[in-house]
Specification:
The protein is mostly helical and about 140 residues long. It is about 85% helix and about 0% strand. The longest helix is centred in the last third of the chain and has 36 residues, at about 110-145. It is elongated, with a radius of gyration of 19 Å.
Length: about 140
Amino acid sequence: MCRLMERFCGLLMIAGGLFLVGLPWILRFYFNFKGHAGMTLYVTMLVVLYVSGLCGMLILWQGKQILRNINASDPFTGDTAQRMRRIALLCLPVAAVYLLATILMPSMLVVLVGIVFLFLAALAAILAEVFLQAARFKQENDLTI
């Protein structure tokens, strides 16, 4: 199952990369379709989507590497804990950008996304500490005969 998830992360990264490359044109098409003409809103949405897209792709990369460790039957390592910590840190810019974007795009959905990413950052940081403790216990156990 983890191998399938690892491949799915790879596919999502490819799709995300294609989306990020085409984002200015996709967003312009959306604005024309909806009838929005404001350049400030366009630039704000472009920045928010680029920051969240790039961080999302990096989070997927870290997740793929964690799944690779799990597939190698070695999930409790310092490497996995470090990757979880990176995921926590990558959630923070997304949360900050969405919470700051509420100034120009006042919407409860934008606030909610920012709060969800703050929650995910806290959760990933907690899991990083759990994985670090598990790695330490595993190392001590491996040294015990």
